[in-house]
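Contributing: when you submit paired examples, paste them exactly as shown. First protein:
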Amino acid sequence: MKHTKKNYFIYLMLIYFALVSSCKKDRNELLDKKSTIYIGSNDKNFYALNGLTGKLIWKYEGQAGFVYSNATHHEGTVYVGGIDNFVYAFDATNGRIKWKKNIANGAGDGIESDVVYANGSVYVGTNDDYMYALNANTGDVKWKFLTQGNISASPVIANNVVYFGSSDGNLYALEAASGKLKWQFDTFGVINQSDPVLINDVIYIGNRSGNLYAVNTSGELIWKYSTNGISLEKSSPTVSNGVVYVGGGYNSSFENKGALYAVDAKTGKLVWEKLKNSGITSSPFIANGKLYITDDDGKIHAIDAKTGESVWEKEILPNSASPTVADGVVYVGGGGTRHIYAFDAATGNEKWRFNVPNGLSTSKPLVVTLPK
């Protein structure tokens, strides 16, 4: 067949319309979904932002900050704890309060634990030393369990058991239905905001003494890894491809800064150590083979999870804010710059920023994508 200019023009037009059709399909798929970012700040506000644009959807102004308790979502309800001692249940779409419950008994230090949903209940720790189970629809108390220290770490629920750490140094396992103690494991160090992670019937948790523990679901030690006194109390471990990742903050005298540690999940042996002498008081997030974390030197890092090598970094002054990744975007608070950021997860290019004029610190963003 002879390739005339006319045929070549038709060929180019067919390619053009195919590309337009593909782009239109992708755009329609995006328009069919609504991504919302839920994030708290110490400016007393809890925010819902448009995930694509960063525009404000709604906000709730409370009596105290929402900076420590990371929000959770279940079937149109967003749950979060406040420093004002209340647990809140918000309508995810418009911010209407479905219920709120004061459970911290006027302790003044409020709620730092996440409010975690499971099987019709929400579970949350308080700074007056209790773990609570509340009715997820009403906020009514089902049971409460007293420890000997404040509970700022968040619970994990699996197989009808609630696992959590307390500042009294113990990892607890309670019956989810009744709150009855099944067992407790002494880590001999304060467990602050290091949430336990449960993978393949093994619980991983860090403490102030600088130990990362692997404990089975019967409460028996499998192994522990020591950072030689660098606290792991403010970083929640995450596990990916047989490796546990956790951040190290400082030693007891605050003279030495920690690093990002990658530890073999089966043996407890160090795989690699990066961002040395950075001081990490945030939690890592793994997505598509990359690890995202902030440090106390003021940066957010994207790191190859396998090798620990840097992919990109940005200075945002996070003030211990932990990142979240969804749909190829990294969301993170930069309290030192008074912004909440969205970055391209692959390149680090900024997509948008939302100004929080009085917000020095923020919680970890919750990303919820729902059909419009």
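Second protein:
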Amino acid sequence: MSRSRLAAGAALAVGLAVVMVLAGCTAAEQEAPRLQVVTCTSLLEYIAERVGGDLVDVANIIPPSQHPGDFDATPGDIRKLADADIFLVHGWPGETFVPGLIESANNPDLKLVTIQVNGNWMTPQVQMEATEMVARKFIQEDPENESSYRQAADDYKAAVIRKDADIQLRLRESRVGGTPTLCAFWQEGFVRWVGLRVIATYGPAELTPQDTRELVDKGREGEVTLVVDNLQSGRDAGKGIAEDIGCARVILSNFVGAFENTETWEEAVEKNMDLILEALGQ
């Protein structure tokens, strides 16, 4: 074999080796481990997905139709936490299952992160505050992707502001603002945000006959035209009250994904608004 052929063969071999090394580096970069995140509710799940995008894997444990205080962990939930980097919780009193669940997971690397924001999580202000807190935590754990987390958080907060404006426009056009309302304790924040006038709240404890009579009296005195129940807890608590007063009743959700086709916060809020307007004949 001639020297020129040997040289060409050597050059080709070196070139192929370089390509393989570069390809290996690219593959390694593409396969960089993503943050493994477990959330205790669909509210946190949705925010984590919006902020994390393709940089995180998110798994939720409490079904959106269930109240956190009624939750019982399963072996599958324990397995989720056993492989997780972060466990996002609200810090609500009903999350009494959290310590036992973490202990059962036996994951010394798991970081428990409380995203505690006062107010109803279906309202825009709480969504934006929680989004900022989640973004800061992801950046802390994965600083190399700070710009991606920050951009995603800013984009989602902008979407929340747009949806807030849409809802306020619908309220003005429908003229339901100021509607006298009795509502479940868990729905008060949302009901006030959409502009309904809360005469009294009930729950979260089970209503006694005396409680019911007092609420009916307050409803009649305040000329209440709507009773709002909470889907996740005491969904029929206000049924008898509404019947006695002779007014409309609606059941709203406090969680993303509880109703069909409400897998985003925007869709869940829109669904609640549709139900309110429908109940009021709009």
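If you have annotations for the second protein, write them as plain sentences, like these:
The chain has two domains: 35-166, 175-279.
Residues 146-174 form the longest helix (29 residues).
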